[in-house]
């Protein structure tokens, strides 16, 4: 099922999120729906707050980027109750976009490498180290669980420059090829 994607300005994107457990109702279906929603919108990552749920869960699939980024980790990956436990001092700047902020692309500086603990969809616990654009994707989605969107990280001058666009999105006046809320 395709779920509506909550856009910039919706309070749920700024809410504190909670860990979930194995008994979270309909979890497998929710994960399936999130992948379906993300694929339909041609996204590479989607966090639960973006479908209106303030819980610590996000999904990513960088397969679409594999051609341009040979070191991309392919396939579907589910991150439940993630915690970034380490990040490199070295930072990298690269352009990002977000399904909740349609039509906006801005360079964001982020740590080049991270170590993250999380549970996968089978409730296996992992501690993994990631680099490259995959590490950036995870940090972008992780931000959603912390009540942040990528435009929070840009300079106030840049934010000023896109403020009209952001206002338009907040007022529900952005045009979008996918279902939004
Ligand atoms: Ni996003």
Walkthrough of the structure:
With 181 residues, the chain is an alpha+beta fold. The chain is built from four helices and seven strands; from the N terminus they run H-E-E-E-E-E-E-E-H-H-H. The chain has a five-stranded antiparallel beta sheet with strand order 1-2-3-6-7, with helices on both faces. The longest helix has 14 residues. It is globular, with a radius of gyration of 16 Å. Bound molecules: nickel (II) ion. Nickel (II) ion binds next to helix 2.
What is this entry, summarized?
This protein has 181 residues and is α+β, with helices and mostly antiparallel strands. Helix content is 23%, strand content 24%.
Blueprint of the fold:
Blueprint: H1 27-40, E1 45-47, E2 57-61, E3 76-87, E4 91-96, E5 106-111, E6 114-119, E7 125-130, H2 132-145, H3 156-161, H4 163-170
Bound molecules: nickel (II) ion.
Defining traits:
7 strands; binds nickel (II) ion; globular; five-stranded antiparallel sheet; 4 helices; 181 residues; alpha+beta
């Amino acid at each position: 099922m395709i779920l509506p994607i909550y856009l910039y300005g919706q309070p749920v994107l700024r809410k504190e999120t909670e860990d979930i457990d194995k008994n979270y109702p309909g979890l497998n279906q929710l994960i399936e729906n999130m992948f379906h929603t993300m694929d339909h919108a041609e996204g590479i990552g989607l966090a639960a707050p973006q479908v209106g749920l303030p819980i610590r869960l996000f999904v990513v699939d960088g397969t679409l980027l594999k051609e341009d980024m040979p070191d991309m980790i392919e396939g579907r990956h589910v991150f439940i109750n993630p915690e970034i436990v380490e990040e490199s001092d070295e930072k990298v700047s690269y352009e990002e976009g977000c399904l909740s902020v349609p039509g906006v692309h801005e360079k964001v500086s982020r740590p080049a490498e991270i170590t993250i603990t999380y549970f996968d969809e089978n409730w296996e616990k992992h501690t993994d180290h990631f680099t490259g654009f995959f590490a950036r994707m995870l940090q972008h989605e992780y931000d959603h669980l912390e009540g942040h969107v990528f435009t929070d990280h840009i300079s106030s001058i840049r934010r000023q420059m896109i403020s009209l666009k952001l206002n338009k999105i907040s007022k529900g006046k952005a045009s979008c090829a996918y279902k939004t809320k």
